[in-house]
Amino acid sequence: MTDSSSIGTAVSDATTRLAAVSESARLDAELLVARSINMPRSYLFAHPEDDLDESAQQRLEYILERRLRGEPMAYITGIKEFWSLELVVSPATLVPRPETETLVSLALQEIPRQAEWQVLDLGTGCGAIAVAIANERCNCAITAVDSSIDAIAVARQNVRQLDLSNVTCLQGDWTHPVQNRQFRVIVSNPPYVRANDAALETLRAEPRMALLAGVDGLDAIRILARDCRSILENDGVMMLEHGADQQRSVADILTSCAWEQIQCHNDYAGNPRVTLAHRPAGQP
Ligand code: GLN
């Protein structure tokens, strides 16, 4: 139990405890204290001397312990910023990552502002990529697919909250729900973590099915390489997020499925992260 009596002390005590598990201990502490008193973070700076009453202290201790056990801030607060949008997230979905904004940015470079294209997001999770594109390209129709019923419910909630009328969320396995459709752009941040990856320890609060893709982490990418050609228009492009060390294997998989103009782009941290592949015009 924390014995902090003021907001200021509660923040500094929580910061000290969080330093062991978080690289953003101070910010996490501020957000958790703000949440425990149900006020915006800005309130803390104006009222550091205010008392934290008994029930606020209990609420703080509860969420602090969740964070200390490694739960991401986003699951505790239920929200995460992505592409300047505030998204609802739940433990049924991955927490959207900054590197996935690279995928959004590349997609927006491909889609002209006024385009009325059909765009598909496979493995949408909380819908981050789909809603970010939909929000910037309001004449495009985005279809967002995920195999998890719970994830699709979260994606639908984000579509509703952002008041987007150009996103349809469908539950199903990869291309199955859109078998007879054609898209100009297909985007995906599929699971790509290896079965025995040491990083899984730090990702333990997140859904395994959104992370893991076989021994080499490439099983989902193999499915997409095989199944997406037939639902892509001539001249269409597919964009896949992948691990920083998977660039070469992803290119090989795509080449073996007859994809062309394969190009990898780095994320903001300088790691190879998103590969684009084309379906040339006129090919079956
Ligand atoms: N980028 C995530 C991570 O390693 C993995 C996401 C994924 O598998 N799509 O933290």
Q: Helical stretch count?
A: 11
The largest pleated sheet is described as: 7 strands, mixed
Q: CATH homologous superfamily of the largest domain, by name?
A: Vaccinia Virus protein VP39
Strand order of the largest sheet: 5-4-3-6-7-9-8
Q: Quickly give the structural class.
A: alpha/beta
Question: Helices and strands in order, then pairings?
Answer:
Blueprint: H1 7-18, H2 25-36, H3 41-46, H4 54-68, H5 73-77, E1 79-82, E2 85-88, H6 100-110, E3 118-122, H7 128-136, E4 141-146, H8 149-161, E5 167-171, E6 183-188, H9 208-211, H10 219-227, E7 232-241, H11 247-256, E8 260-266, E9 272-278
Parallel strand pairs: 3-4, 3-6, 4-5, 6-7
Antiparallel strand pairs: 1-2, 7-9, 8-9
Helix pairs in contact: 1-2, 1-4, 2-4, 6-7
Bound molecules: glutamine (GLN).
Glutamine (GLN) is lined by residues 94, 97, 189, 191-193, 199, 203, 211.
